[in-house]
């Protein structure tokens, strides 16, 4: 296996879960499971969910 192929599997551009967000952690967990299973569709799907998941800082809520 070449280094290039390995780098392509785990893209540095993949979204990462936001700190305390349980939804993001669930998405990330499912993504890793799907990756282990070789399920590229679900991996992409979870990445999409992570990327789109809206977040507001706790301080934003308090400001209003
Ligand atoms: Zn989230």
Automatic annotation (TrEMBL):
Q: Where is this region: Disordered?
A: 45-64
Domain of life of the source: Bacteria
Protein name per UniProt = Uracil-DNA glycosylase
The opening ranks of the lineage are: Bacteria, Bacillati, Actinomycetota, Actinomycetes, Kitasatosporales
